[in-house]
Design goal:
Layout (H helix, E strand, L loop, with lengths): L4 H16 L6 H20 L10 E3 L17 E7 L1 H4 L10 H13 L3 E5 L10 H11 L5 E5 L2 H5 L4 H17 L3 E5 L14 H22 L3 E3 L1 H11 L1 H4 L9 H19 L47
Helix pairs in contact: 1-2, 1-8, 4-11, 7-8, 9-11
Length: about 325
């Protein structure tokens, strides 16, 4: 699919906005306005120099903090995180809140094994950066036992080709699988929940992001990975409690938002490794209720924390 597909999506969205207002002839003006909004939004969203907390190390069952990694430190499972700022944990105030740490601690408690966490994710990365992250992995050592990839938002805001973005992700999954790693991919989240993106651009990027998520899921399955549809699973929660689930920048998740994502990634990751004792792994939705819930409705009460105590395995019945 050519790069102009994003323009086609924007023009279609502009036409819908103009038609809905009874001004069908204004679609081109609306399209031009959307493209200006996209440039401005990309500048604001991409303008961050914050560094996510350092989180790597070896996590032991029941331990809150890792043992610093050295070559003589033993471990049983190696978990590696690839992708963009959401994979790196931008928006978290401490290492304990980073998604890779949440997953490593949870996996250690669930499997009763020592889990080494390595993070290759880079804030601002698109799917184009995945090849370099995997290359860096091979320079550092052998492939991990498990890999989690979170990428896609920057592909949308940078207006990259949906087809090429999915292909690049599939290639990264294939390389990791060829090295023996279990691979779990959190597909592109729903950008329609981001109030920092103005309308009508938000409608366009939401449509584009959901199309990318479907292409990512197909590419991941074809390469032997396990997709987790974050847009389908997280949209209702983020719509009901944006103040709690977004960080101060209004774009990246907060600690609670990352915790919610980890709740859905954990059972798929642990089950793929053969270490899930929390009951049947929920089947991801084929068609999502999130589309019907896109417009904000009554706010819900706060949910329990993902990891309420030192033993993460005790939350098995809450997942899903």
């Amino acid at each position: 699919m050519p790069r102009t597909s994003w323009r086609a999506a924007a023009l279609a969205g502009a036409t819908a906005v103009a038609a809905g207002s009874g001004a069908g002839g204004a679609s081109w003006l609306t399209y031009t306005y959307l493209m200006r909004q996209a440039t401005e939004a990309r500048g604001v969203i991409g303008r961050t120099w914050a560094k996510p907390p350092e989180a790597d190390g070896v996590y032991l069952p029941g331990a809150q903090s890792p043992v610093p990694w050295r070559r003589d430190v033993p471990f049983d499972l190696h978990l590696m995180i690839f992708g963009d700022s959401t994979a790196a944990g931008l928006g978290c105030a401490s290492a304990a809140e980073v998604p890779g740490v949440l997953l490593a601690r949870a996996l250690a408690d669930e499997s009763r094994r020592r889990v080494r966490l390595s993070t290759k994710a880079i804030a601002g990365a698109t799917s184009r950066g995945l090849a370099g992250q995997v290359d860096a992995m091979y320079v550092a050592g052998p492939p991990p036992d498990a890999a989690v990839i979170l990428v896609g938002v920057n592909d949308v805001t940078a207006k990259q080709s949906l087809h090429r973005s999915a292909q690049r992700l599939g290639s990264a999954v294939h390389r990791l699988r060829a090295g023996g790693a279990v691979v779990v991919v959190g597909t592109c989240p729903d950008l329609g929940v981001v109030g920092a993106i103005p309308q009508p651009l938000r409608t366009v990027v939401r449509t584009w992001g959901r199309q990318l998520a479907r292409a990512q899921a197909a590419a991941t399955r074809a390469a032997g990975g396990h997709p987790v549809p974050l847009a389908d699973l997280l949209t209702p929660e983020f719509l009901s409690a944006p103040d709690r689930l977004f960080s101060a920048d209004g774009f990246h998740p907060s600690a609670a938002g990352y915790e919610l994502a980890a709740r859905h990634l954990l059972p798929v990751l642990a089950a793929a490794l053969g270490h899930w004792a929390g009951g049947p792994v929920p089947e991801p939705p084929l068609t999502s209720a999130a589309a019907r819930l896109w417009l904000p409705r009554t706010r819900r009460g706060p949910r329990e924390r993902l990891f309420p105590g030192p033993a993460v395995g005790t939350v098995a019945g809450e997942i899903g």
